Amino acid sequence: MAQKPKILAFAGSLRNQSNNKKLLKIAIEGAKAAGAEVTFIDLKDYPMPIYDQDIEDAEGPPENAKKLKELMLSHQGFLIASPEYNSSISAVLKNLIDWASRKAFTDEPDLACFKNKTAALMSVSPSFMGGMRGLVTLRSILDNIGVLVMPQQQTIPNGFQAFNEQGNLINGAHQKNVEQLGAALANLLSKLNT
Questions:
Q1: Contact criterion met (CB below 8 Å) for 77 and 117
Q2: For the chain, which residues make up each domain, given as ranges?
């Protein structure tokens, strides 16, 4: 029997009631329905200083950076919901990428957390573009550090009016598309890892 694909899911937002965390949970259900094992993490539970080489040289990576690296290394794919901050990605998401890209051990391969990983991207935003500009930035970063980023993505505009009280998308087509994005990542990982 084939091993279940393992997906690490996180949002680039710290806010408790983040719409991107809500969006991510919909994609997670789609990935699970397609047979994936999904680990959801909240970056708020892993506070880290802004990447600073002086800190790294003096103390090594922070403990939370090491924990996140271990999680990333133990999963084959990433589901990422990225809010758009000033047409780019959030500081917390960029900081995760920066710390995870650093070596925690001298014999660690370059960019071990990212190479041979596959990611699906999504965003919800109050704007009419749904966070699309931020995903362009995120796609570029991930592509340049060795992540296979799926061509399909999902953006949801008018985010503050997009969800019902249960955390589902009011627009049924959007709900289905986000679930299908999670499923598509799970199915692709299954094919890549057979």
A1: yes
A2: 6-192
